Amino acid sequence: MREATRAWFQISLQTFGGPAGQIAVMQHKLVDEKRWIGQRRFLHALNYCMLLPGPEATQLAIYTGWLLNGIRGGLIAGGLFLLPGMLALLALSGIYVGYGETDVVTALFAGVAPAVIAIVVQAVHRVGRRALHHPALVTLAVASFAALTFLAVPFPAVVFAAGLLGWLLSRSIPALREPPAPDTGDGPAPLISDDALHHELPTVRRSGTVLAVGAVLWFAPVVAFAALAGTTGTPVFVDQGVFFSGAAVVTFGGAYAVLSYVAQQAVGVYHWLAPGEMVRGLALAETTPGPLIMVVQFVAFVGAYRNPGSLDPWLAAVLASLLVTWVTFVPCFLFVLLGAPYVERLRDNRGLSAALTGITAAVVGVIANLAVFFALHTLFDRSRAVDAGWLHVDVPVLGSWDPVAFAITAVALGVMFRLGWSPLRTLGLCAALGVGVHLLGLL
């Protein structure tokens, strides 16, 4: 346990660059270097976590921690995975609220917002290249993008339909339900091999206990904050607690997919943020370790600061950010610790793999929708809604285009796709460009 805790602390400080980078860090540390988990076992855990709502990298950390050391191991792994990013983004959110309107900070965000567009476009490319290995899956991805972008189809409906279609497609395309390849890594046999049974068996008593404890831990803070809201006139606590609790169970496909849904609701429905501020929050989250979905903490912080009721704005902001972080990530622990013993018995289930294939294809379309949302509100100063029958779409006002944003976006795309720069390095360059353009008087 002590050695595993040290390993998870080391992993938590290296988890920059989004879910792909985080999964790669765990792959290197747990599978390749430590040889604690077999490759096929690791991929099976990843497949299950991708099928769950919420951030798959965080859930994978919890799952592999459970594989190694049971429930305590899962709690330690997940907690350490989240802690550095949570503390860093809490501090950055405070800095943004306190100093975000200064010229220098405005210039920094003028540079990093275009970089975020490039980062999300790269995510579309990477996930699409891996996931869309059949024309039917390409069609499913395009249909998911069109449903979200042009038809305003609810996000959960798109994900459910994608899983169902993936399962149906697998009946005529057997390759969609093939299990992962066996472990071919070098070195000694893994501590937990691909074929070994886990010691923690699924039982009704265990499942009932985990479900009861998890549900209480999940919803008790929401009830407590609802009571606080009644005495302080701070309804934002209730709105955020209920919304992000619901988001935790309907957002599939990782951080970028979750952010597409959060952006639609936080900006367009609850008005906690302006459209451009969602891009800024993601830029801040990109600079911190841990899951990108930690940006919900930024959303809660800014929203509560501006709607504090009778509380001090800073106190309301900190309380809201902690509440939202809690209700967003407690379900990750609940879903994994509840389902992992059963999933361990389904390692060769082809139907599960097929449903995951469909959802992963749809996620490509979801991330592309997020890229369009960010581009619309970063590259243009104004947009307008178009509603015609089934069509519901925001389009830019072409005369409001921002030449500086277009130029920095082109630079970010160039260094990421042509030179292979990391997201963090690209953000640093674009931030410097934003400050440089400000000093030249072009902003």
Automatic annotation (TrEMBL):
Q: Which PANTHER family match?
A: CHROMATE ION TRANSPORTER (EUROFUNG)
Where in or outside the cell? Cell membrane
Q: Which keywords label this protein?
A: Cell membrane, Membrane, Transmembrane, Transmembrane helix
Q: Which residues cross the membrane?
A: 75-99, 105-124, 136-169, 210-230, 242-263, 314-340, 352-380, 400-417, 424-442
Superkingdom of the source? Bacteria
The record's Pfam families line, in alphabetical order, gives:
Chromate_transp
Q: Which NCBIfam families match?
A: 2A51 (TIGR00937)
- Bilayer disposition of the protein: Multi-pass membrane protein
Family membership: Belongs to the chromate ion transporter (CHR) (TC 2.A.51) family.
Protein name as annotated: Chromate transporter
Kindly report the protein's main subcellular placement as a broad class. membrane
